[in-house]
Design goal:
Helix 3 links the parallel strand 1 and strand 2. Helix 3 packs parallel to helix 4. This protein is an alpha/beta fold. The chain has a five-stranded parallel β-sheet with strand order 4-3-2-1-5, sandwiched between helices.
């Protein structure tokens, strides 16, 4: 039996893979792409407990994703949920939690159509809340950008 050596064996494998139409992995192809951890949470129920649950999801998610992943997290609220983001005593605890999470990168966006429909003015909202023309449109846009959709 003839000993062709390791380099000859690699050459034979490379030629066989080309003939078979198979591409051997190269260093650049075997490196993992960095994962997209961007997340959008959709809240549409007018229930402060549901908002608290969504904020808890955000807090836990931030603990779990890699620190330098560049993760973006957005809560989009529409429908009666927009009333849960107003400066009222029943929303005070969620507001404190949200303010802490917003310092860590959370963005909260409320639907202007819902605000108008439920009689909520922008000056009634928590600090640093953003408004968007349409909540559903914003959800679609973010998903097109690669955000994962969660409805807590």
């Amino acid at each position: 039996m003839t000993d062709y050596g390791a380099q000859t064996a690699v050459l034979i494998c490379e030629r066989a893979s080309v003939t078979a139409g198979v591409r051997l992995p190269e260093e650049s192809h075997t490196k993992e792409k960095s994962m997209n951890y961007n997340l959008v949470l959709h809240v549409d129920a007018g229930d402060t407990g549901r908002v608290a649950f969504a904020l808890g999801n955000v807090r836990n998610y931030l603990k779990d994703v890699p620190a330098n992943s560049g993760t973006k997290i957005v809560i989009v609220a529409n429908g009666p949920a927009v009333r849960c983001f107003t400066k009222t005593p029943e929303n005070a605890q969620n507001e404190l939690t949200a303010q802490t999470l917003m310092k860590a990168g959370l963005s909260i966006r409320l639907c202007r159509n819902a605000l108008k429909g439920f009689g909520v003015s922008e000056d009634m909202l928590w600090d640093d809340i953003e408004t968007v023309s349409g909540g559903i449109t914003e959800l679609c846009r973010l998903q097109q950008e690669g955000y994962s959709y969660i409805k807590p």
